[in-house]
C-alpha cells in the first residue's frame, strides 16, 4: 500500500506505453491519453479498490476500442441495443452506450456490486446504515410502507400521508381558511437544503400553470431575498400559508426566515399562528414552538429520513399536494423505480448502470464532473436538486474504514438547449473534465397543441435536434454521456427519476466504501459561522464601552482586537466592522474601510445596559 500511495502522489505523466510498475497504480484518462491523477486525489484508497481499477478500466485497448466505435456506426448501434435499458411501466429508458466501459470492467463491477446490493438490501431492512448517527435509512419505506422493519412505522407513514392529503384538500376547498380571507391563495415555504430543494424541484417540474395555491420560497438568511418574497406577496400575506420545514428544527437560516416572516405578519396586523404549518421532527425546537404557539398544523419528519432524501415525506408531499400535484402518483412512480432497482442483475438495474458509469467515467474517485443537461425547462432544477443529493452524500473525507479518501462527484448543469449558448463550447472542445447526462423528454407539448413552425418541423423538433446533435458532437470528440429518457414530465416520472438517482447514489457509495447518509463537513462551516457571530458580539460590546465614554473614544482595529483579547482575529474583526459599517451600525471616525490601518470606529449610540452585561 505504501508504494501505491507513492505512485498516486506522483505528478509525472507516464507515456502512453505504460510500464508494468506504472500499471499497478490507477491511471486516469485525460482525453484519449493517459494521465496520473492529480496529486490531491486520494492517497489511501483501499487496496482492492485502487489495485484493480487500473486493470479493469483504463487501458489502451479501451481507448482504441472507443475510437473504433466512433468510426463504426454499426458497432455503435449494436452497443446501443445491447445496453439500452427500458422500464416499460414508467416509460423510462436509460442509454449508457456512450460511456466507454469495457467488458472486463463490467465483469469486475458485477463482482463489486454483490456487496453493494447486499448493503442496500440490509439498509432497506432497517440496518443502521448511518453508523455515525446511529440511524436507520428509510426513505424507500415512504413509497412502500410494507417494507418497514417495525409495524408502528407503517401506520405512521400511512396516517401521515392521509393527513397530508386531507389537509391539502381542505385548504384547497377553503374548508380551512385564514382568519381574514376567504381562502388560502399562496404558500410561503421556509427551509433550506433538503428542506427546500426537493419542494423547489417538484414545484418547478409539476405545478400546473394555475395552481390552487402558488408557492414561493425563503431558502436563505439573506434579508433582501426575504424582503423580496414578502414584498411580492403584498396584501396576499393575509391569504398565505407559511410552511416552515426543518428536520432538525434548529437550522439558523430557517429560524431567521421564520422570525422575519413573523415580524411581517405582526406589522400587517395578522395572526401568524393561524397561518403557520411546521414540518419537523417531534419535539424539535420548531415543533415545540409550533405547539406552544398553537400553529394551524404540524406534520412529522422522521429520524430515519435524511434531509436530502426527504422529498417524498411531508417535506415534499405537503407543498406538492397544495399545488394540486398528484402526490400518490409521485410515490407510485418512485415505488416502481425502487422495485426496478432492487434487481441484482447489473444490466437490468438502471441505478446500478448509472453507478457503474459514474465509476467508470470518474475513475471511482470523482476525477470527472457530472454535467446534468435536461432538455426541458420544467426540469431546470434537477441539477440543483442532484447537487445536494450527490455531493452531500458522496463528498466525504474518510471511507468506512477510516482511510482518508476525499471522495465525491461534482454535479452541475442547467438545461438544454439554453446551455448550448453558454458552456457547451467548453464541453465539446475545452478541458476534458466531465461526463454528461442528457435528460430527454419525448413528449414536447400536451396533445393537440403542436404546430409546424416550418414545413415538417416543430419547435420541439428543434429541442430534440439540439439534444441529439450535442450528444453526437460530444461523443465524436471523445466526451462520454449517459441519456435518461422519459416520455413525459408527470408526477410518476418525476418520482421515478428521483428514486433512480437516490438508489444510484446509495450503490455508488457502497462501491467506493463511504457513508452516504451523514454530512459531517457541513458542521465545520456552521460552527465557524457561530464563532464569527460570537466575535461580533464581543466587538460590539468593546465598541459600546468606548462609545459610552465622554468624549467618545473611537478605536482602531488593533485596539478593538486587543480589547476583545483576540489579536489573531484582526482580519475577521475588520470584516465585521466593514459589514456593520455598510449597514449603518457603526460609524467610521477616521479613514475608510478601503484602508483598514487608518480606520477608527465608534458606535452611533451608547447602550448603557450593555456595559454591565
Ligand atoms: O432540515 P434541516 O434540519 O433544517 O436541515 C437543512 C439541511 O441542512 C443540512 O443538514 C446540511 O446542509 C442538510 O443535510 C439538510 O438538508
Automatic annotation (TrEMBL):
Any one GO molecular-function label of the UniProt entry: glucose-6-phosphate isomerase activity
Pathways involved: Carbohydrate degradation; glycolysis; D-glyceraldehyde 3-phosphate and glycerone phosphate from D-glucose: step 2/4
Catalytic activity: alpha-D-glucose 6-phosphate = beta-D-fructose 6-phosphate
InterPro entries xrefs: G6P_Isomerase, Phosphoglucose_isomerase_CS, SIS_dom_sf, SIS_PGI_1, SIS_PGI_2
PROSITE patterns attached to this UniProt entry: P_GLUCOSE_ISOMERASE_2, P_GLUCOSE_ISOMERASE_3
EC number: 5.3.1.9
UniProt entry keywords in alphabetical sequence: Gluconeogenesis, Glycolysis, Isomerase
One GO BP: glycolytic process
Enzyme class: isomerase
CDD domains on file: SIS_PGI_1, SIS_PGI_2
Pfam families documented for this protein: PGI
Family: Belongs to the GPI family.
HAMAP family: G6P_isomerase
NCBIfam families on file: PRK14096.1
PANTHER family: GLUCOSE-6-PHOSPHATE ISOMERASE
Protein name as catalogued: Glucose-6-phosphate isomerase
